[in-house]
Design brief:
This protein has 98 residues and is of the alpha+beta class. The protein contains 2 helices and 2 strands; from the N terminus they run H-E-E-H. It has a two-stranded antiparallel ribbon. The relative contact order is 0.13. It binds zinc ion (ZN).
Length: 98
């Protein structure tokens, strides 16, 4: 397996532990996910999430997230991934279309 496609844990920066702790302290160990009305969840947590799911470990792309929101986000991302894959299939043409 090429290095690039290995799981995220192995790609975390060497100072990840310190980074993670700084994010948790910044967010006061409370979930930063906002609902549709823009209100933060603020559930106590010690999990840190990448806001945009990529390898950007900048503090701006990291937030504290509760277990419920983390699970929901992971599921949504998996679903989005499946949809993206489905979109790359050639569109099925109507048998009568020219
Ligand atoms: Zn939450």
């Amino acid at each position: 397996m090429p290095w690039e496609s290995s799981d995220r844990r192995s790609r975390l920066p060497s100072d990840w532990a310190r980074r993670r702790l700084r994010v948790l302290r910044r967010d006061q160990y409370r979930c930063q996910v906002r609902d549709a009305a823009g209100l933060k969840c603020l559930e106590r947590s010690n999990e840190v999430d990448h806001i945009v799911n990529n390898d950007d470990h900048d503090y701006a792309n990291l937030q504290t997230i509760c277990r419920v929101h983390h699970a929901a986000k992971t599921q949504a991302e998996a679903k989005a991934g499946r949809r993206a894959k489905a979109r790359t299939r050639p569109p099925s043409r109507h048998p009568g279309a020219l």
